[in-house]
Write a structure and sequence with these properties.
The protein has helices spanning 6-40, 43-53, 56-59, 61-79, 83-114, 116-123, 128-157, 161-185, 189-214, 226-250, 252-262, 264-277, 280-294, 302-339, 348-363, 365-372, 378-400, 405-409, 412-431, 435-442, 445-459. By secondary structure, it is mainly alpha-helical. It has two domains: 6-233, no CATH class; 251-459, no CATH class. It is globular, with a radius of gyration of 23 Å.
């Protein structure tokens, strides 16, 4: 860290603080949301709202995917002084994601309108007209969130991504405030959906205004080839869109499988253990975000820096995962007993399987971030998806044959290897290292010095 310019160190420190603060705010939001809803609404009405509000996240993924791919191109081009290409990437991302999101939302609203009576009957507590009106407001909510995602490109080019991360986290906190006010004043889904939508519109407008100031050169007139820019974005954008699907396969699909094969009681214990084990994901998600955003600012000695980064962060992540695993194997039973009020037991065999798969997933974070920041991740994401799908099918077959739960969950290990191995292979090619050279670098004197420097940098942050 000491070899970087002071401005880069300040940006990195702010980025770390922003991601850690964002993680803390996400936890606070998750803890606060349900008590607020249950305090004012019936369980049936809360359940209906949770079902309805679960859909926006899937529609907003288009904007997030274009923001990732377009942001990589725009930032790399701006760093090289190719502003025409940077502007083309921004506008191609903005126009295309807006058009696709609008089309998907229009189709969804038509589907809701056509089936409103059936949906209303299914939810039981929502009149058909209220359901349609709430869906319309949630469509505006999704559109605003998608616009915010693409606005993040301007923050990255303006070297202000920490502000973008914090503004999104603040928006989540403000959603809790809006939620509390709306459910206190009314039991209408429309009021709550409208309040959240208007908040997100205000956030999107604010982010657009800030981003325009941070990266003024992105908004100059351009006569570039937007079709060419779009063609460059299609493959990495599709890969960014596929990643959430893989996460659903390796998370929610196994939840459904365990519930169907072993019953509700076993499912409850499994979900509790998995939730505790996956706490490490809060850290690894932060590591991915920081490394992904910082990758575009490395400059002329980029390859040398990334060689050190890949080895140092792999070693640091392995140490973190081992320390977390030891802690959990010692205190896991106590943590789960407190977490579930003594109603489920901590299963060591399940925890070991989940810890191994989680460690593999954590180790893949750095190569995934480095490769994704160059828009070269489509190949390993495709392998990850195919491998995860195959492992899920095998797991379903084992469940049908009466295999133990630990054996079924062990399929998560090869599923995660389907990401880790190709991601490391791509990253090593990108930074110009051989597998043997990389392994030697993990135990070099320089590596331990780098880990110590990283620790001192983190410790000295205010």
């Amino acid at each position: 860290m000491s070899h970087q310019p002071p401005a880069a160190n300040r940006r990195l420190a702010r980025g770390i603080a922003a991601f850690l603060g964002s993680a803390a705010m996400r936890v606070a939001v998750q803890i606060a949301t349900l008590p607020i809803l249950f305090a004012s609404w019936s369980p049936e009405r809360v359940g209906g709202w949770l079902l309805l509000f679960a859909l926006p996240a899937y529609f907003a993924v288009v904007g997030q995917a274009f923001a990732g791919a377009g942001g990589n191109v725009a930032l790399a081009s701006a760093q090289e002084g190719r502003w025409e290409k940077a502007r083309d990437a921004l506008r191609a991302s903005w126009l295309t994601s807006s058009a696709i999101t609008a089309t998907l939302l229009a189709a969804a609203l038509v589907a809701v309108f056509v089936s409103k009576d059936a949906l209303s009957s299914s939810l039981a507590v929502v009149p058909a007209d209220e359901l349609v009106a709430a869906a319309a407001w949630l469509a505006l909510y999704v559109a605003a969130v998608a616009q915010s995602a693409v606005a993040g490109i301007t923050f990255r080019v303006g070297q202000a991504y920490p502000q973008f991360v914090l503004s999104n986290a603040a928006a989540m906190l403000l959603e809790v405030v809006v939620l509390a006010v709306c459910v206190l004043l009314s039991d209408s889904y429309v009021v709550l959906a409208a309040g959240l939508a208007l908040l997100r519109v205000a956030v999107a407008l604010g982010q657009y205004a800030y981003g325009r100031r941070a990266a003024r050169d992105l908004f100059s007139a351009t006569k570039g080839d937007r079709r060419k820019a779009l063609r460059e974005l299609i493959r990495p954008t599709l890969a960014f869109m596929l990643l959430p699907v893989v996460y659903v396969l390796n998370l929610q699909a196994y939840t459904v499988l365990v519930g169907a094969a072993y019953g509700a009681a076993v499912l409850a214990a499994f979900v509790a253990t998995r939730t505790i084990v996956r706490l490490i994901d809060l850290v690894t998600n932060t590591l991915f975000g920081i490394q992904f955003f910082e990758a575009g600012y490395l400059g002329a000695n980029k390859q040398a820096v990334q060689q050190r980064q890949l080895a140092t962060m792999t070693l640091a992540t392995l140490a973190l995962a081992i320390a977390f695993s030891v802690f959990l194997l010692i205190f896991g039973p106590l943590v789960q007993s407190v977490f579930t009020v003594g109603k489920t037991a901590f299963a060591y065999d399940l925890a070991l399987v989940l810890l191994v798969s989680g460690t593999i997933r954590a180790l893949a974070v750095t190569p995934q971030a480095l490769v994704s920041a160059e828009n070269r991740h489509a190949s390993f994401v495709a392998v990850y998806f195919a491998g995860s799908m195959a492992c899920l099918v095998i797991a379903a077959g084992l469940a049908a044959g009466g295999a133990s739960l630990a054996m079924i969950l062990a399929l998560l290990i090869p599923a995660e290897l389907c990401q880790a191995i190709p991601a490391f292979r791509s990253a090593l090619q990108q930074v110009g290292m051989t597998p043997s050279g990389f392994l030697r670098s993990l135990v070099s004197r320089q590596r331990f010095a780098d880990v110590g420097e990283l620790w001192r940098f983190l410790k000295d942050r205010p």
